[in-house]
Amino acid sequence: MRTLNVNLGERSYPIYIGQNVLADSHCFLPYIKGRKAAIVTNETIAPLYLQRLIDSLPGKDVTSIVLPDGEAYKNWEVLQTIFDALLRDRHDRSTTLIALGGGVVGDMTGFAAACYQRGVAFIQVPTTLLSQVDSSVGGKTGINHPLGKNMIGAFYQPKSVVIDTSVLKTLPEKELSAGLAEVIKYGLICDEPFLVWLEEHIERLRHVDPESLIEAIERSCAAKADVVGTDEREAGLRAILNLGHTFGHAIESHQGYGAWLHGEAVAAGTAMALDMSCRLGWLSEAQRQRALRLLIRAGLPIAPPGEMTPDDFMKYMAIDKKVLDGQLRLVLLKQLGEAVVTSDFPYNILKDTLSADYQALAEQLGD
Ligand code: NAD
Ligand code: GLY
Questions:
Q1: What is the DSSP letter of 257?
Q2: Which of 9, 41, 50, 176 has the most other CB atoms within 10 Å of its CB?
């Protein structure tokens, strides 16, 4: 088992990474102070892993809360059912919530923990690659609003993050690729040597090779922990973790939550950020194509939905959380391995990026 630390003073916490750590009580019991705990999961994951987790909590009085599966359920109504179950089973402030699932379960459980009785402890047990490398670390929690992704939420850190790589064996291939979008993101924004490593290991990752996965997850979590440790509440640096997300969230909101996987939307959004970085003269065409080829080899789309117009993008991008004082800020690349957050770009360059023909490029690069 490998252990990393997210350094946030008194809110610091460990990230445990390894095969079969789900069955290791030592990863859980020290972080559950009271007698009661509640596992929040969904109807897909429950039959696969719920009992294994319950078995790792000997002596605890456990409530299981099984949500419907899907991004479309990351909303107020479903959040309320978590509170219903906690109150029904008389969970008090000493309880601990445990999120067993992907980013949807993790974000909702974290938000429920932040709100329930003004805040109770929670543990993240991420079961998708995307949640293992990104959403379970850093304390962003929340739900969607029909008008915008993740618009209602709180910064609220878990007590620990337990990453069992063996659960990735049951993850659908498309979901694994979606997770790779966020892994590749770390290489693009802050770690060019990791990008080289990914170019060498992408096939092994897609074949769920345990050693390669552990390495990729550890390097991704280490990068995220570094950024979060410096800028927990996104006063500045943390925004670089949103490479491709402003365009990607617009795709998700426009298409209807769940129609595009988050990681797929991030990949197409990253292709748009690469395009704009090229137009601004920061990246060469060769660098852009190198990044796009890696996304394609990871099984990801590099073209946004053909029917989305620049106006469609602008409608959703105008309410992105990186908009400050009405000014749109974008994460772009100064070079491969160096991101910048900027509002200093000519509007016509953004317009050209929003209207570029990505499908043609995808065909040219062999998508
Ligand atoms: P998800 O939670 O919807 O999970 C994807 C699918 O895989 C679901 O159908 C799920 O039931 C299934 N699944 C999960 N684990 C499985 C397993 N081991 N075996 C078989 N099936 C499994 O999607 P996701 O990609 O994990 O997360 C996306 C969400 O995360 C979005 O809502 C996004 O906004 C959020 N997110 C949050 C942050 C953050 O910092 N908080 C960062 C990135 C993404
Ligand atoms: N996923 C972006 C962040 O955690 O800041």
A1: B
A2: 41
15 sits in which H/E element: strand 13-18
Report whether CATH 1.10.3720.10 matches the domain 173-366.
Answer: no
What topology is assigned to 2-170 in CATH?
Rossmann fold (3.40.50)
Please tell me the residue having the least CA distance from ligand 1 atom 27.
103
Which residue puts its alpha carbon closest to atom 32 of ligand 1? Answer: 104
The pTM for the full model equals 0.96
Tokens found for residue 337? 């391995």
Q: Where are the chain's structural domains? A: 2-170, 173-366
Length of the chain measured in residues: 367
Question: pLDDT tens for residues 319-362?
Answer: 777 677 778 999 999 999 999 999 999 999 999 999 999 999 99
Quote the CA–CA distance of 170 and 151 in Å, as a whole number: 31
Contact 265, 249 (CB under 8 A): yes
Q: What is the pLDDT of residues 72-89, one digit of tens each?
A: 999 999 999 999 999 999
Tell whether residue 154 is among the known ligand binding residues.
Answer: no
